[in-house]
Amino acid sequence: MKCDVDIRKDLYANMVLSGGTTMYPGIVDRMQKEITALAPSTMKIKIIASPEHKYSVWIGGSILALLSSFQQM
Q1: Which SUPFAM superfamilies does UniProt cross-reference here (predicted)?
Q2: What domain range is 35 assigned to?
Q3: CA distances for 11 relative to 3, 28, 39, angstroms
């Protein structure tokens, strides 16, 4: 909870699970329950785990590598 107060609402409402460890059964429900317990009661919590979340990190990295702005670094 050390992030800027102005962006907390957006962060709570836009959580994306990615990577192999997010494949554990029930992880989305567990994350939802634990974060809801920590967040203010008025906060909307949204956690997304796409069907490809096992590979999301790799897919994101490959897209980033294709960007001309990244290639100039």
Answers
A1: Actin-like ATPase domain
A2: 5-71
A3: 9, 16, 11
DSSP track, 29-51: HHHHHHHHHHS-TT----EE--T
pLDDT in tens, 32-60: 999 999 999 999 999 998 888 888 888 88
Supply 12's token pair: 């709570």
| Tokens representing residue 50 in the block | 């796409």
By three-state DSSP, how is residue 15 classified? strand
- Against a cut of 0.90, is the pTM above it? no
Task: Look up the CATH number of the domain holding residue 17.
Answer: 3.30.420.40
Residue 47 confidence (pLDDT):
95
